[in-house]
Amino acid sequence: MIQRETIHEIRVNARAERVYKFLSDVTLWADIFPPTIYVKKIESSKNQELIQIWATANGEVRTWQSRRSFEPEKRQIIFRQTHPAKPLISMTGTWKVCDEEDNVSRVKLVHTYTVKTEEEADYIETAVDTNSRKELGSLQAFFAVPESEYAHGRVEDILQISSTATEAMDFLKQAEKWPERISHVANATLTRFEAGGELLRLTTKAKDKSIHETASYRVVISDSMIVYKQVETPGALVSHRGEWHVFTEDEKTFVKSVHDFALTRDTVTKVLGPSTSLEDAVDLAGKNLMHNSIQTIKLIDSIGVKADG
């Protein structure tokens, strides 16, 4: 058995208390950390939690459960994977945040892991190093933007459809067929990974007739839920992730679409001009995202896709 340890550190323009608060809230991670696609809390108490994470590693989608213990007085979070993803035998680590000077802190991320072979150790080291650099780099970039120049938006809508829940999920899962079925999708390429999850590349047309190239990692969480995260975002968006929920109530089928997204003053100015406020940009982005989702949901009935595709 081989054990290795990696240490990554970075300085952040924010007080340690603020950074620690962010690291403690895993529901925010998918908005800021590039590798994180979706996080689900399984158990939660004051001093610890059990979470399920879906994230990219070496270009593929991986998932694992992690037990996290909080030590706020030390601004430290200790984590341990409870069911390590292969080829890991074990994976533990620590987030540690310390104040250095006024409004500057240092973030230290430590991983300790065991595997069977040197080849596996090299593979994990590459994945850990790549993701740690991305996470710390994005953390630094996020806190470099003044709070007044960053805006988060969330929109959601629910529509009733006449199709069954199975037909609705089949339509949403068969994204490679969307160009034939959805007018605002010009092209779609779907790459499925052996370990689960998929990468969806789309060419879409917005309400204003502009063309956008996007790429999203998608995960089918259950037979009623799909989550996705764009890794190439259109327009002024700096982050965008979404969810599809299909459910039945009183023998009626419903589809719910959720979008979480973020913009900055800088991206809004570059794309929409200096006269556009952050508030107006959030409103516009939310309307554009939801317009496409509503059109997609409405098409489920008109296409009439069946379970066999």
Task: Summarize this structure as a short list of keywords or feature phrases.
single chain; 309 residues; alpha+beta; Alpha-D-Glucose-1,6-Bisphosphate, Chain A, domain 4; 2 domains; 7-stranded antiparallel sheet; 7 helices; 14 strands; 28% helix; globular; Polyketide_cyclase/dehydratase; Polyketide cyclase / dehydrase and lipid transport; START-like_dom_sf
Characterise this structure:
- The structure is a single chain.
- The chain has 309 residues and is α+β, with helices and mostly antiparallel strands.
- The protein has two domains: 2-144, START domain (Alpha-D-Glucose-1,6-Bisphosphate, Chain A, domain 4), CATH 3.30.530.20; 149-305, START domain (Alpha-D-Glucose-1,6-Bisphosphate, Chain A, domain 4, 2-Layer Sandwich).
- 28% of the residues lie in helices and 47% in strands.
- The chain is built from seven helices and 14 strands.
- The protein has helices spanning 16-24, 29-32, 118-144, 165-173, 178-181, 265-272, 278-303, and strands at 2-12, 36-44, 48-57, 60-71, 76-81, 90-101, 104-115, 150-161, 185-192, 198-205, 211-222, 225-232, 237-249, 252-264.
- The strands form two sheets. The protein has a seven-stranded antiparallel β-sheet with strand order 1-7-6-5-4-3-2. It has a seven-stranded antiparallel β-sheet with strand order 8-14-13-12-11-10-9.
- The chain is globular.
- The mean pLDDT is 93.
